Amino acid sequence: MSQKRPIKGVILDIDGTLIESNEAHARSWVDAMEEAGHHVAFEKVAPMIGMGGDKVLPESLNIAKDSPEGERISKRRKEIFKQKYLQTVKALPGAADLLRHMHDKGLKLVIATSSDPDDLKNLLQLIGPHIEDLFENATTSRDAPQSKPDPDVVHVAIERIKLSPQELIMTGDTAYDIEAANQASVPTIAFRSGGWSDQDLKGAVAIYDGPADLLQHYDESPLAQGL
Q: What residue ranges are annotated as transmembrane (predicted)?
């Protein structure tokens, strides 16, 4: 039997993985589109969360994010999220403890998110004080030409954490995370906390309810056992 290879680093999604924010992001998009004169149902936008605005706007309105209207809607979405919905967002149970545990075990941590840097800063503060100090680096929508499910943001995270794909695992809550990681040759641990079914997450090497569940079963997980 071949020996399992140890995991040395973790690439982490944020929204739906560490923060219960997917619904807030979806409602921010819906509100911003409505203000711009476009009625799009929440049920249509919600499954798109996990992708960046470069995907959400073309998918929902057939508008490019870098078009004048796309830029206006994107800017307004960010304002609405911060003013109206950020106060409703909270860290998922066990998020801070899981991050500290992985860090204490010597794993390098890097963020790979389709969110923009401003959103990321606000969200990290919700997890706990000084939580950003646990991360080696972060990759956001500003660092990658294409958002998930394209692998760009994962490729940049790999470069910044200075480990090979074979030494890494990604944690995420959507099929977009899994697809992006797979294209970068990185296996994924998936969380059900984003509302996706096990069937949707079937490309993951392991599935847990969320951060607290993974922490509870950490010693038997791929993070401790290797792959």
A: none
Q: Measure Cα distances from 153 to 28, 48, 157, 179, 180 in Å.
A: 23, 17, 6, 12, 8
Q: List pLDDT tens digits, range 182-205.
A: 999 999 999 999 999 999 999 999
Contact call for residues 102 and 223 (beta carbons, < 8 A): yes
What are the start-end ranges of the H helices in 62-190?
68-80, 95-104, 117-127, 152-161, 175-183
Segments of the chain with pLDDT less than 70? 1-2
CB 77 within 8 A of CB 191: no
User: pTM score, two decimals?
Assistant: 0.95
Please tell me the predicted confidence (pLDDT) of residue 2: 65
Rounded to a whole number of angstroms, the CA Rg of the chain reads: 17
